[in-house]
UniProtKB/TrEMBL annotation:
Designated name of the protein: Pirin
GO molecular function list: metal ion binding
Annotated source species: Phytomonospora endophytica
Cofactor annotation comment: Binds 1 Fe cation per subunit.
Gene3D superfamilies, alphabetized: Jelly Rolls (2.60.120.10)
Length: 332
């Protein structure tokens, strides 16, 4: 169950009711199913964007659903130290905990409903691991990691770290109280989330009760994506079926609609969906491993800078933990 909830959604600010004569509903362009794989030291993931054209995702380039998995004692895994340059990582935890440390001095522990936002920019080294007590006890682990591209003039921005706890997100309700909307970054209907972004984007986690529907106003110049974390429902005015582990890509328009089926499976009491969109950057992308640049020459330079130690160094407190990659997607 999502950690950030509301006892009475009807007491929250409401998303305005849209006028179908002026607000164009976005059609559903595609629904794809995320394949399963493994990340870092072996924790299971689903590659949410696999098979989707980067032009439809822009300004996003990659997203992993981490879990949902229930670990036995001793099983929780993380990633070794590894570099990044040219983009931002956004890690959102639904269940379990994850600890972050980086070569810029950023770090912290996030649990259910919390977000870690790391701007790699010019270059950084970081590590993500479950805390020792979770390794010892085991437990449920579920989250998302999103990669947000940076435009050419921000590729070498100074690295920074944001720790966004769950109680900081903006909470909204659909008009009838059937959906709880958590705004993590950007804004929905004039309500802003706490995440500070270089690239204009909106990130939302919505929980929709069985039989309920959610229609959100959405900036016409943003793209629009919806990834189902749990449950079953439909997307768009044509009510195209969608379920856990599937991504919907919407076309042009002013609003998006997502509905939950009347019947949900025994493990989930509602439809949980991660909704995201942003202003397309429309610049060339050269992505390989942990680097997202504009040209292959810049990717080569990033590897050379990493090997020469110019992306930072592992802090002394962590110097006994080594690693140089996390099994991330290798895309030419």
């Amino acid at each position: 169950m999502p950690a950030v909830t509301a006892k009475n959604p009807l007491a929250l600010p409401r998303v305005r009711t849209l006028d179908p004569s002026t607000d164009r509903a976005r059609p559903v362009v595609s629904v794809t199913t995320a394949p399963k794989g493994f990340e870092g030291e072996g924790f299971p993931v689903r590659r949410a964007f696999a098979g989707v054209d980067l032009r439809a995702l822009d300004p996003f380039v990659h997203m992993d659903q981490m879990g949902e998995v229930e670990y036995a004692p001793g099983e929780p895994k993380g990633t070794p130290w590894h570099p990044h340059r040219g983009f931002e990582t956004v890690t959102y935890m639904i269940d379990g905990e994850m600890a972050h440390s980086d070569s810029n001095g950023g770090g912290g522990l996030i649990g259910g409903g919390d977000t870690q936002w790391m701007t790699a920019g010019a270059g950084i080294l970081h590590i993500e691991t479950p805390p020792e007590h979770l390794v010892a006890s085991g437990g449920v682990f579920h989250g998302l990691q999103l990669w947000v591209n940076l435009p050419r003039d921000k590729k070498f921005a100074a690295p920074r770290y944001q720790d966004i706890t769950g109680e900081k997100v903006a909470l909204l309700s659909s008009g009838d109280g059937g959906a709880l909307v958590r705004v993590i970054a950007g804004e929905v209907d004039g309500h802003a989330g706490p995440g500070s972004t270089y690239t204009p984007i909106t990130l939302v986690h919505a929980t929709i009760a069985p039989g309920a529907s959610l229609t959100l106003p959405w900036r016409a110049d943003f793209n629009a994506l919806a990834y189902v974390l749990a449950g079953d429902g439909s997307v768009g005015a044509q009510a195209r079926p969608i379920g856990a582990g599937q991504l919907a890509v919407f076309g042009a328009g002013d609003s998006i609609t997502i509905a939950a089926d009347e019947r949900q499976d025994s493990r989930h009491s509602a439809l949980d969906v991660y909704i995201l969109g942003g202003l397309p950057i429309r610049e060339p992308i050269a992505m390989y491993g942990p680097f997202v640049m504009n040209t292959k020459a810049e990717v080569v330079e990033a590897f050379e800078d990493f090997q020469a130690g110019r992306l930072g160094s592992i802090p002394a407190a962590h110097a006994d933990v080594h690693g140089d990659g996390e099994g991330e997607p290798l895309t030419g």
